[in-house]
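Input for the complex:
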Amino acid sequence: MPLAFSPTTVPVVVDDAKCIAEKGCTVCVDVCPLDVLRISEETGKAYMKYDECWYCMPCEADCPTGAVTVNIPYLLR
Amino acid sequence: MDAIKDGLSQVDCDVLVIGGGTAGPMAALKVKQNNPKARVVLLEKANVKRSGAISMGMDGLNNAVVPGYATPEQYTKEITIANDGIVDQAPVLKYAERCFEIIQELDRFGIRFQKTGNGDYDVKKVHHLGTYVLPMPNGDTVKKALYRQLRREQVLISNRYMATRLLTAPDGRIAGAIAVNTRSAEFLVLRAKAVILCLGAAGRLGLPQSGYLWGTYENATNSGDGYAMAFHAGAALANLECYQINPLIKDYNGPACAYVAGPFGAYTANAEGNRFIESDYWSGQMMQEFYNELQSGKGPVFLKLNHLHPDTVGEIETILHKVERPSRGRFHATRGTDYREKMIEMHISEIGFCSGHSASGVFVDEFARTTVQGLYAAGDMANVPHNYMLGAFTNGAVAGEHAASYIGEVDLPEIDAEFIAKERARVLAPTKREDGIPPNQLEYKTRRFVNDYLQPPKVTARMKIGQQRFAEIREDLDTAMVARDSHELMRALEIASILDCADMAAHASLFRTESRWGLYHNRVEYPEKDDENWFCHTLLRKKDGRMVSEKQPIAPYSVPIEDEERGAYDQLRVRKQA
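Predicted:
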């Protein structure tokens, strides 16, 4: 049985213009309790790779440039 | 990152603390303070800087026993009554006697507590009988303050390692743990004289109403790994049928915080805006009244603040939208809910295990010792009732202090290479399959069945069907689960813990053939409390590879409870005005 791709709209949004991951910053990736953020190999910016969010906000609170916004997951809104 | 690598290394230490949330850091600190030469490793599935139930801090202490406001004996009495008497008082009394000194230590760490103009701690009344709630104006700094102390004491921190099984020595005592890196799948064997389990609640057991797996009441990282590991190591777990169910903001699924808003004049109300419970302090009886109101024609239930002065509401918002679950404000904003105008719809949470708010967990004594030699447990996963954050700190300290002296009495135990090889094969099995069922589907199905079959009111036939479904899922998990990277492997290991907890919840609930703790163990066919047969703990453990439950007597009370006091929590419903 092959695995399907099921799209979801992710709660954590990163402003690429503000994100400084390409300079080596990994703060949001480091602090996420559920480990759902990664740095994109294509863009060099942080993004939400896994839709497994507790909307707890360390990523947003600790981001040094204010690039990260945590929204409430759509199913809960 | 996330690619699966082959690797195995070993670290020897004196004390291994698993879980870097609240109890864990305090346990590690206390070992070092009492035994500076001890080699202490703090293992954490996430990152100690922001892990655990208080990753964003906390608004206050729910159970502070502060001289002048309450005595340890009063507190022990209150907790005994709130838990229908099923309490070994020694660890509760120990907590109550020690927690004030921990408050003062946290204060020195820089976590300040609210004081009155005279400089006294400003303790508020929320509980049914006593006064124990102490606000924390800079509660958002808790994790940072703890982290500073860990660095100062040179505790070795290993982030992003998930422990999978405990190791025991041939003589039965604890010998360490096996862990896997959540970003590379490399193994770490930790050989230790003592292990302190601080892995938090089983918070991913029931499925929230939203259907979103991660929209849980507890931090969703807390998947019950500690309960599963303790079980497989042969430790006893107490009273698991006493579930955790919490009142919450519906859909957001986070705390409504009646403890915070209550002292300002807010309260839990029905759709008519009227109070229906006398006390917002959580107990099984309170949750039963909440459930009854939800099901009644006067439901649903709301948090009511719209009768308060707008400035007061503003003050409450400042607290609630800054710490613990700060995204709460964002949730209300999305729906256009203003506390000043509308009541906030509440509901009850999915089921879980968590002594922080309830009573069940790994059985411990007043030194935080489990039934396995050298193995300790503290915080939400140990069975000291109504622990909350201060209980995690205090009992973590108790565990750390005892372990600091215990390690002087024993040698490093032997570890079993064959067991480690078998465990590696078990853990990696889902990564060896090309095709199969992904962890998220196994998890969704398990947790939906937890709701369908285990949620109270509990019915025997229903719980037995649940057990059958869990057995089928276990078969799938063992033969068909697939994990494509190390992140998915972490999820695969978590679903194994969730399934173990589901089985334990069903087994324990079927064993106790009475009703107790209000909604938490409301058994429809046995509606009465049966003190004659069930005034006891139930201990669940693994014996010869099988799950068994047995009765254990309650240790004689050191703080006596008079007959007329026993029922104090039974009459929580507001009586009709004459």
